[in-house]
Amino acid sequence: MTAANREWTILLYTVADQRELRTYANLTLHDIDQAPGDGNVKTIAQVTLHSNNVDPIRRYDFEQKFSPVRKTDVQNKLQYIPQPDHGPLRNLKDFLVWGQREYPAKRYCVVLQGHAWGADYTIPSLALTPGVGADRRHDLTRLIFGSPRSKNHMNNRQLQAVLTSASAHKKFHLLGMDSCLMCMAEICYELRECADYIIAPEGLGPIAGWPFHPILKALNRNPSIGPAELGAAILKRYSAKYRHFGGNMKLTISLCSLRYSGELLQAMRDLVASLLHGLEDHSVRSAIIRSRLRCEYYRIPSYVDLCHFCQLLMHEPAIQQQSVLFNACGQLMAALRKRFIEEVALKRGRPDSFGLSIYFPKWQIGGKKRPSRLEPPPLHDPFEVPDTFAKAVAKIDAAYADHEFADRSGWKKFLLDFIQARFVTRRPNNKA
């Protein structure tokens, strides 16, 4: 199949450096290997295993014929090509560049598979892997993709840099984040120069990952579809697989058009300006706080649905219809629904899931002291609630250390003012 004729090349990059992840990575590889194909669609994969494994970086191109230059994986029985380990950034870039060079196509879909934590997960300075010694440590860093206790994670800026530098066509046509909690306004906006469309879960993502066999089967039946149509087809097959998974667990997954990132930013600026002005009025400030406290969250209490917050605020009695704040909420929802957010799946009847979350902590500093744990958590608690305003500022600064969206929209300033508005001064204990 020549470059002029191949419609799609799918590039799957999996970080499976934990035992459970390895098991499901093998199932995904078999899913791809057994999918029918006629040459119009090419799927390749690279898997990162724990460094204790022989050949921890393995590349699969799913050729049916046996090749003596490849090795055979003893677990999944598939042939692979071992790769040198140059670290997660170069490993990913080398794979993407190689895939586009070897299997050129009209359109490319990159799928990143592994653990992820959204916008607020800080890794302490610690040894990268057990037993590597004190000379192999990293500084305090922010993680959005990869496993926390390994050397294979990436932060936001690193992921942006790799994707933009690796694309042969400036942007990839479709970026799939087969990882929990990654459909956040902050993350999607930062990836606007990396892809035209993105698919990611707003909530949790099942560890088994995308159902590649039915996805590839559908794509091979109609390989000439564009990225938006492929994204919709992925959501359809994903929903079918996980329709009954986990009961009422939040598994909302979205297809977003990053072409509307500028509209998202402008709508957020207008909303933030109105919210900051509203914090100066007691009744409006109370309405903002109530709306935030009523928001359902996505696994981590500090992640809430952006549209749902606006919807709740618009129904507050203190927010008059056609007021500046009311209109700003409506304009943001209009910018997101059916524009930035093209399609949402697995809402499961939840009216509070519109497809895009945002980092919005509700900490009340200076309130009642929380009971201390009997034993401290291992290393530290990355989601701990700060007990002083200074710690809250530091935590928000850390969460947004590599996100320009928070500064350009003013959202970071609003969060600091919001937390300060909830500051509670403890009364002195005058008991003798």
What does this protein look like?
By secondary structure, this protein is an alpha/beta fold. The chain folds into two domains: 8-260, Rossmann fold (3-Layer(aba) Sandwich), CATH 3.40.50; 262-338 and 354-421, no CATH class. Helix content is 36%, strand content 17%. It is built from 13 helices and 15 strands. The strands form three sheets. A ten-stranded mixed β-sheet has the order 4-5-3-2-1-6-9-10-11-14, with helices on both faces. Strands 12-13-15 form a three-stranded antiparallel β-sheet. Strands 7-8 form a two-stranded antiparallel ribbon. Helix 2 (88-102) runs parallel beside helix 3 (156-166), helix 5 (212-221) packs antiparallel against helix 6 and helix 7 packs antiparallel against helix 10. It is elongated and about 75 Å long. The termini are far apart.
Question: How would you briefly describe this protein structure?
Answer:
With 432 residues, this protein is α/β, with parallel strands linked by helices. It is 36% helix and 17% strand. The protein folds into 2 domains: 8-260, Rossmann fold (3-Layer(aba) Sandwich); 262-338 and 354-421, no CATH class.
**CATH topology annotation of the largest domain:** Rossmann fold
Number-wise, the strands total: 15
Mean pLDDT: 86
- Oligomerization state of this entry? single chain
Radius of gyration: 23 Å
Report the principal-axis shape.
elongated
- Find the structural class using helix and strand composition: alpha/beta
Strand arrangement, major sheet: 4-5-3-2-1-6-9-10-11-14
CATH class of the largest domain: Alpha Beta
The major β-sheet equals: 10 strands, mixed
Quickly give the CATH architecture of the largest domain: 3-Layer(aba) Sandwich
Number of helices: 13
Strand content: 15-25%
Order of SSEs, N→C? EHEEEEHEEEHEHEHHEHHEEHHEEHHH
Q: What percent of the residues sit in helical stretches (DSSP H or I)?
A: 25-40%
How many domains comprise the coordinates? 2
